[in-house]
């Protein structure tokens, strides 16, 4: 290992980043009506967006397809070599193809280009060469900046792949805005992990029906304790004949009324106007509210005040809604 070069690793890294940043600035300033046309083709497609590319362009293409799919535009990657061995059957006439090649002359793309031309499938090219076969055969060509690669020999795909990836992100964001893709839609495609937890709502986690610890205001506390224990939520909800919430009994209420507790009815012990929450509220907000109120459970009510569920802090924490 060249120790002198290793000592300058941070300097080298900074030079690489500056080279790529300069190219990205050049790319950003070059976007024009062609970019708008490409975004419109993708947003208005009745089929899917098919992305293809060879080598490093293929790796970037897979990420672009994944980003499109996760933001409301059905998309997947087709490997150009596999395309000529049957995978062209995955491409339909109502699709739009995004084909990536820095040179625009990648031989492995020939079968894809011929198929797209034969069935008149709209194609968006991402390439650095405006006079290439790929650019000429496309409905719209998005040109990468004629900027140097950031590697020390000027040949390894670095600047070009960074620009391609960024251009893919720009297209995906433009398309999702054109289609009115919102946070609520994002949750549909990201139900798992930390992202999914941010969009879980109270209604997804609350206890309902037979899981609810329900009592009447005139019910003796001996029976209330049995109901609280059997349902395991640490609370009991008082409801009237119409199912409306009339109070709640918590562990704190039990401690405050310990003297002669079994001589009382539920209505004597309950907190009559407890804090409640709606089923459509985000679970993360519910967690924060329970923390502020220093309670472990919240009754869930509808607009009429009817009890529809019970949310416990443990339900939120298990779901990652923190």
Write up this protein.
By secondary structure, the chain is of the alpha/beta class. The chain folds into two domains: 3-181, Glucose-6-phosphate isomerase like protein, domain 1 (Rossmann fold); 202-318, CBS-domain. 45% of the residues lie in helices and 14% in strands. The protein contains 16 helices and ten strands. The protein has helices at residues 3-7, 9-30, 33-44, 56-70, 80-83, 110-118, 133-137, 159-178, 183-189, 193-197, 202-205, 221-231, 251-256, 266-269, 283-293, 313-318, and strands spanning 49-53, 75-77, 96-100, 123-127, 140-143, 214-215, 235-239, 245-250, 297-301, 307-312. The strands form three sheets. Strands 2-1-3-4-5 form a five-stranded parallel beta sheet. A hairpin with a 5-residue loop joins β7 (235-239) and β8 (245-250). The longest helix has 22 residues, at 9-30. The two termini are 47 Å apart. The mean pLDDT is 90.
Low-confidence stretches: none
The overall pLDDT, averaged over residues, is 90
Distance between the termini: 47 Å
Helix content: 40-55%
| Number of domain units | 2
Give the C-level CATH assignment of the largest domain. Answer: Alpha Beta
Strand order of the largest sheet: 2-1-3-4-5
Task: Output the helix-strand order.
Answer: HHHEHEHEHEHEHHHHEHEEHHHEEH
User: If classified by CATH, what would the architecture of the largest domain be?
Assistant: 3-Layer(aba) Sandwich
Strand content: 5-15%
- Profile the largest sheet: 5 strands, parallel
Count of helical regions: 16
The oligomeric state of the chains shown is: single chain
Enter the CATH topology name of the largest domain.
Rossmann fold
Query: What does the radius of gyration come to?
Result: 30 Å
């Amino acid at each position: 290992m060249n120790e002198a070069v290793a000592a300058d690793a941070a300097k080298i890294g900074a030079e690489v980043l500056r080279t790529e940043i300069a190219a990205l600035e050049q790319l950003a300033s070059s976007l024009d009506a062609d970019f708008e046309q490409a975004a419109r083709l993708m947003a208005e497609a009745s089929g899917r967006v098919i992305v293809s590319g060879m080598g490093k362009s293929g790796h970037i293409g897979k990420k672009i397809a994944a980003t499109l799919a996760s933001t409301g535009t059905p998309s997947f990657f087709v490997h150009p070599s596999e395309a000529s061995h049957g995978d062209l059957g995955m491409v339909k006439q109502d699709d739009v193809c995004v084909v990536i090649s820095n040179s625009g002359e990648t031989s492995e793309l020939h079968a894809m280009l011929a198929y797209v031309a034969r069935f008149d499938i709209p194609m968006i090219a991402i390439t650095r060469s405006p006079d290439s076969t790929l650019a000429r055969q496309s409905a719209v060509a998005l040109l990468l900046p004629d900027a140097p690669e950031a590697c020390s020999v000027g040949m390894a795909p670095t600047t070009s792949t960074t620009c391609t990836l960024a251009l893919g992100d720009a297209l995906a964001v433009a398309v999702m805005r054109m289609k009115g893709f919102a946070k609520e839609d994002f949750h549909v495609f990201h139900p798992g992990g930390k992202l999914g937890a941010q969009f879980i709502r109270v209604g997804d986690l609350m206890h309902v029906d037979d899981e609810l610890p329900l009592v009447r205001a005139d019910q003796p506390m001996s029976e209330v304790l049995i109901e609280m224990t059997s349902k395991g939520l640490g609370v009991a909800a008082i409801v009237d004949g119409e199912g409306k919430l009339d109070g709640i009994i918590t562990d704190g209420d039990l401690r405050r009324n310990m003297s002669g507790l079994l001589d009382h009815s539920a209505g004597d012990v309950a907190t009559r106007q407890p804090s409640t929450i709606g089923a459509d509220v985000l679970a993360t907000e519910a967690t924060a509210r329970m923390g502020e109120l220093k309670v472990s459970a919240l009754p869930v009510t509808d607009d009429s005040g009817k009890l529809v569920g019970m949310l416990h802090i443990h339900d939120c924490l298990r779901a990652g809604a923190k």
